[in-house]
Amino acid sequence: xNASRSTLKLLCAVTCLLTFTFGNVSAQQKKQKExxxxxxxxxxxxxxxxxxxxxxxxxxxxxxxxxxxxKLINAGFVIGGKRGRGIAMVKDEAxxxxxxxxxxxxxxxxxxxxxxxxxxxxxxxxxxxxxxxxNKSSFTLGGDLSVAAGPLGRSSxxxxxxxxxxxxxxxxxxxxxxxxxxxxGAALDxxxxxxxxxxxxxxxxxxxxxxxxSNNVGVMKLKTSLSALK
Length: 230
Known about the structure:
Blueprint: H1 2-49, H2 57-60, E1 65-90, E2 101-125, H3 128-132, E3 139-140, E4 147-149, E5 168-178, E6 187-190, H4 192-199, H5 205-209, H6 217-228
Parallel strand pairs: 4-5
Antiparallel strand pairs: 1-2, 2-5, 2-6, 3-6
Helix pairs in contact: 1-4, 1-6
């Protein structure tokens, strides 16, 4: 009887140990997945900074929010769909970027389109308050939130014939084959699960937006890359 109890205790101990070990591995793997989004976002910002014709300095100087989606998949034949995961950040009054909030963009479209396209997408917000409102509910691009195609011109004197009247501007760098891309009808949402995994606890998007201190090397590098995008 004692031997049986000892064996049972041993099995329980082993089971608990395995559960704890594999549970931690799974949590670590999930966090690494979100960390890769941060690293991919750094690459996207780097890609844009190398373009001769990219986001104008005039717009960057008044930008207080940004969404970076390293890989937006756009696919379809007349009726299409899109799906991507990325990060959102806002700039405070002192010009410091907040920690990243993980977001998703999902939607469909109808029009002249065929094929599959992988797009690096950047949405530039003139005011941080607009982006912070995503914390309250999802946005429908082109509906609740109007998005204009971003003007191009790196130098401060480029494209002086346009006015920066829109609130949000979109920029995309395409990979693959696709004819036509539209963000109209796409839903922009907070990825609560990804935020909880990355930060190790349930945390609201607003709390993240209001925090600019981080010991994460990737996050610090991303902030540096954004500050250098001038």
